[in-house]
Amino acid sequence: MEPDSTPPRAPARADLVERAHLRDPRDTSHVMSRYDPDPGLAPLVRRFWIPVWSVPPGQEAPQQVLQHPVCLLVVTPDYARFYGVTSGLSTTVLAGDGWAVGVMCTPAAGHLLARRPLAEHADRAVDVGEVLGAAAGPLVERVRTAMAADPLDPAAHAAAMAAYGDALRPLLPVDAEGELVDRVVAFVEERTDVTRVSQVCEAFGLSERALQRLVHRRVGLTPKWLIQRRRLHEAVGRLRAGGTTHAEIAADLGYADQAHLVRDFSRVTGTTPGRFAAVHRTGVAQAQADDAARP
């Protein structure tokens, strides 16, 4: 099938993505483009993300991400992979010149791709052929062909996204259980007042055991992890914004006290909230100074 000639989509909202990506403001290693899917593909795709990087020889640019509760499909010039949910901190090291075209799937889509409980894919990646079968080869070829000439070209992005669309549409329609897990994840991600698994059970009329089985099968982890990950995303956003104390953030996010926030944040990210906020403040100030110094 020929690539869809649909024009490039408008960039997606960046709020959740930015909170997930623990990027230092001084990091100029890459340009990131993000796009919403076409409406017909929205039951399977949250967004497309396309980084294009250039790192000086001998240097590296580590990218740390607190992944959302979804699976990813990623094609680069060197590999094509399906990623399950990473329970901790995901780190990708950029070097040299390169690009990637990624798909952030919906919670429902991961199981439809893997065709098995996603707990088996948590914290691991496999070649995309293991999930897409015969459709993997044409997808990878089309994406690499589209991006070869100019990976910053919006028309190349549109062609690469169209290739993903053709590979994923046979998975539609999403099944009823998939629609349910989408609603559960959205409920946890959008409701900052949700701090207990029992609140999710009550909202959806599910027993704790039924909710555990659903999230284990369709996300790969636990309902408690969903809540913790949402809290960490929210904490990152507030630490970057500044203007509130760590004690206020802890109280707003439902932690028993500031010490619990520090412990949770440090265990997953490898740094304390205070150090993270300080690095961000320093990075913003340096980036602003650099911009002001440019002619």
Could you characterize the architecture of this molecule?
With 295 residues, the chain is an alpha+beta fold. It folds into two domains: 15-171, no CATH class; 176-282, Homeodomain-like (Arc Repressor Mutant, subunit A, Orthogonal Bundle). 47% of the residues lie in helices and 15% in strands. It contains twelve helices and nine strands. Strand 4 and strand 5 form a beta hairpin. It is globular, with a radius of gyration of 20 Å. Residues 1-17 have low confidence and may be disordered.
Query: How many strand segments?
Result: 9
> What's the multimeric state?
single chain
As a percent range, the share of strand residues is 15-25%
What sequence of helices (H) and strands (E) makes up the elements? Answer: HEEEEEEEEHEHHHHHHHHHH
Kindly give the count of domains. 2
Averaged pLDDT, please?
90
The value of Rg in angstroms is: 20 Å
Q: Indicate the low-confidence ranges by residue numbers.
A: 1-17
- Overall form: globular
Distance between the termini: 48 Å
Main sheet record: 7 strands, antiparallel
> Which structural category fits the helices and strands?
alpha+beta
Q: Share of helix among residues? A: 40-55%
* SS element count, helices: 12
What's the short story on this structure?
The protein is α+β, with helices and mostly antiparallel strands and 295 residues long.
